[in-house]
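Example 3.2
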Amino acid sequence: MDTINAQWQSKARGYLASRYRTTDTGCWEWSQSCSDNGYGKAKFQQVQVSAHRLSYMAHVGPIPEGMALDHLCMNKRCVNPEHLEAVTPRVNSRRAVYAYLGRNYTLCFTGRGLWQAAYELGGRPRRRKHFRSKDRAEAVRKVESFIADLVP
């Protein structure tokens, strides 16, 4: 879809308006049904579509070919177009892993310039990896680089 008809966008915005609630973080949280993976589901003009994709198309325009929508707020139910960014699938995957690991990895100093990171990835049990570095900031960079290489 290269262009979107203004009349279609107006109808889509009207459809969306009564189906979300605004949170204190500015998210427009979808209040209707959701898929098994947590994203809002919408049925607009007899077509089932992800609610955040419909919102992006209604407010911003077409999603560029080969791009995915990233929730900058990390809220899968959010349909606020200001919280959505069109990115490559690879960037989207990396951001998701970083967001997940931001809550699920620890870094501790074990002595002699050796830092240990314990992390979870894909629901697997905690794993450990050692990184030799002079300080914590350098260790964090090494951990994040290591994790980025794990993402397809």
